[in-house]
């Protein structure tokens, strides 16, 4: 059983999170993700292992597997329905866990990343997610998130306090003195 740390996590593990997964089950999304990651990885050809924090149904992991089936991939996901779905694709090791819980950092990866995940984390718990992202990488970090220079909460599908925009990358750069 995953320890939930906020109302936001409760929200994403329930029906709303399940419905989100259904909306994202689309081949066109994987094609788009394949293009995005192909472009992003051009400047880092030595990547062999990748971990995604908040992988949902695995679209990003499937895209990465299409780019290079030899990538060692791992994903963390809080929503059990999404975990069951992504495991069926058998492209990555999948761990059912919240990224706001301390994760095992004994194994690190060339790249750790999030894509559309930090925006849904309770701002009071971002420091734990940042720590996990940082500690799981021994080389690169990629954050693909909504940006705003100042933290704001945005109404998402008529729900309050489930989507936040801020300068996630800037905060991590400052916190960990990244280049």
Give an account of the 3D structure.
By secondary structure, this protein is of the alpha/beta class. The protein has helices spanning about 5-15, 15-25, 25-40, 60-65, 80-90, 125-135, 170-175, and strands at about 50-55, 70-75, 95, 110-115, 135-145, 150-155, 165. The strands form 2 sheets. Strands 3-2-1-4-5 form a 5-stranded parallel sheet, with helices on both faces. The longest helix is centred in the first third of the chain and has 15 residues, at about 25-40. The model has no long low-confidence stretch (mean pLDDT about 95).
Please name the defining characteristics of this protein.
179 residues, alpha/beta, 5-stranded parallel β-sheet, two-stranded antiparallel ribbon, 19% strand
How many helices? The count is 7
Radius of gyration, whole Å: 15 Å
Which strand order do you get reading across the main beta sheet? 3-2-1-4-5
| Secondary structure: number of strands | 7
Describe the sheet with the most strands.
5 strands, parallel
Structural class: alpha/beta
Task: Estimate the global geometry from the Cα principal axes.
Answer: globular
Task: Kindly estimate the percentage of residues that lie in beta strands according to DSSP.
Answer: 15-25%
Residue stretches low in confidence (pLDDT < 50, at least 5 long) are: none
Mean pLDDT: 97
SSE string, helices as H and strands as E: HHHEHEHEEHEEEH
How would you sum up this structure in a few lines?
The chain is of the alpha/beta class and 179 residues long.
């Amino acid at each position: 059983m995953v320890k939930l740390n906020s109302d936001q996590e409760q929200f994403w593990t329930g029906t709303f999170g399940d419905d989100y997964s259904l909306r994202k089950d689309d081949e066109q999304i994987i094609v788009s993700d394949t293009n995005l990651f192909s472009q992003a990885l051009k400047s880092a050809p030595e990547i062999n292992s990748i971990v995604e924090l908040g992988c949902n149904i695995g679209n990003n992991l499937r895209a990465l597997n299409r780019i290079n089936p030899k990538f060692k991939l791992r994903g963390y996901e809080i929503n059990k329905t999404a975990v069951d779905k992504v495991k069926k694709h058998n492209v990555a090791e999948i761990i059912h866990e919240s990224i706001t819980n301390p994760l095992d950092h004994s194994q690190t990866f060339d790249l750790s990343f999030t894509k559309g995940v930090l925006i849904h984390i309770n701002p009071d718990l971002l420091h734990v997610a940042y720590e996990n992202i940082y500690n799981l990488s021994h080389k690169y970090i990629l954050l693909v998130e909504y940006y705003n220079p100042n933290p704001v909460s945005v109404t998402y599908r008529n729900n309050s306090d489930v989507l936040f925009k801020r300068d996630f990358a800037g905060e991590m750069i400052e916190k960990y003195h990244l280049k």
